[in-house]
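--- STAGE predict ---
source: upstream dedup step, 1 unique chain passed
mode: sequence only
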Amino acid sequence: MRVAKRIRAYAKVIGQARRNRGDLAGWLGRRPQIGVATVAYETALLFSNRLDPRLKELAELKTAGLVACQFCLDIASALAHTSGLTEKQLTDLHWYQTSDAYTELEKLVIAFAEAMTVTPAVDIDELRETLLTHLSKAQLAELAASIAWENQRARLNQGLGVQPTGMADGLACAMPEPRRAQ
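--- STAGE serialize ---
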């Protein structure tokens, strides 16, 4: 049931694209092997549904914001609305640690996404152990794979210049995060 709901959400969100619709497909069409592999991995993540989709959406939004991928923020913000995330959750991602918009588990998931995304990846061991008190190993594997894939997606899209399509137009959106001092 969860998979069917997510497939409908993806179809709805993709149908809302108003501009730059062919950017990503145009690029991936130049290398069909990469396009097929991308679709296969996206499908595998879609059908891996032991983890609450809201947690995946939060993690992917945080990752997209840290990488500053406009296309990823556009689609992820639209998908977040379909999974039930609130406007406050979308707009408070920068200061999630002190926001009352998130549960303890949601804050841990966001922190894990942040730790996996910053370079170098730091402070993951303690977060992983704490998350395992809330999640099964299968759920954590799904979360880590989703975060890693969002990093790949975001960096590929930025490298190719893929532009936002307007899927989240008129909705509250997560924003790119400011660069941190190194």
